[in-house]
Design goal:
heterodimer, A: 105 residues, two-stranded antiparallel sheet, globular, B: 155 residues, Hypothetical Protein Ychn, Chain: A, 15% strand
């Protein structure tokens, strides 16, 4: 596994830069990962999505689908795509320090 | 050729449940990866965006070897409804939305939803017969213009 230094801490990441251990994540890392992926500033709405993803992942062991994200995160699908233009489910997972979601939906 | 796919235009030509879902899954999956996507519904595929029909799309139970159902049994009254219900339940478990919700999701993700003009003319359909997410009824030529610079996938 490659390692990356994010917000001053060395962590293990996969080939696409997703952190492999969600337990080592900090919000500062989230800010830096977002910036590296073209999101200069994380708003409250971004954080709402990222926190929802993390909570779901940590309690169920799997990232939610984009459908669940749109229904249960409090941020509708249209806005999800505005907040995270290059794919909300994947990018928010990356920012939130959880492994890359593998679902097709 | 670039080694990434940046844009896809997906044609949905069939009107059965198993004929419609693959195109929807591919369009939604494209948007999830940040790939630009257009959906073009033609022939019986128009049922997926038909106001009165999109909630009633069924599995075709005759002539599908994969169902392992005798042809005569597949044609039995109610068989298509039964198999559709079973599949719908499994899909819900897997968080796969029903067709109307799925098309709305894909539209909300920024994909273009288009209907084929030749098919709409053939079936006597006007804009108001189609769901609100439909961007336009377009000709083949317009489709090719929308699809320019990307991959075309026919389902």
């Amino acid at each position: 596994m490659p390692t990356a230094t994010i917000a001053g801490t060395a962590v293990e990441v996969d080939a696409e830069g997703f952190m492999t251990d969600a337990g080592r994540w900090t919000p500062e890392m989230g800010v830096e990962i977002a910036r590296q992926n073209g999101i200069e500033r994380l708003t409250d709405r971004h954080w709402q999505v990222v926190n929802f993803l993390r909570t779901t992942y940590l309690s169920t062991g799997a990232a939610p689908s984009i459908r669940t994200l749109g229904k249960a995160s409090g941020v509708p699908i249209k806005e999800l795509y505005q907040l995270f233009p290059r794919g909300p489910a994947k990018l928010a997972a990356k920012i939130g320090g959880i492994p890359k979601p593998r679902g097709c939906i | 050729m670039s080694d990434t796919i940046d844009k896809v235009s997906i044609i949905v030509s069939r009107g059965s449940l198993e004929g419609i879902y693959p195109g929807l899954i591919m369009a939604n999956g494209a948007r999830m990866e940040g790939i630009e996507a257009n959906l073009f519904f033609t022939f019986f595929g128009l049922d997926a965006i038909h106001r009165a029909k999109h909630e009633h799309v069924k599995v075709a139970t005759v002539g599908e070897p994969g169902l392992h159902l005798a042809t005569w049994l597949g044609g039995f009254p109610g068989m298509s409804t039964l198999v559709t219900h079973q599949l719908a339940r499994k899909m819900e478990d897997l968080d796969i939305p029903p067709i109307p919700e799925f098309v709305e999701m894909i539209s909300d993700s920024g994909a273009g939803i288009y209907a084929c003009k030749a098919s709409a003319d053939l079936f006597g359909l006007a804009r108001e017969d189609l769901i609100e997410q439909v961007s336009d009824i377009i000709t083949v030529g317009e489709f090719y213009r929308f699809a320019a610079g990307g991959q075309i996938i026919f389902t």
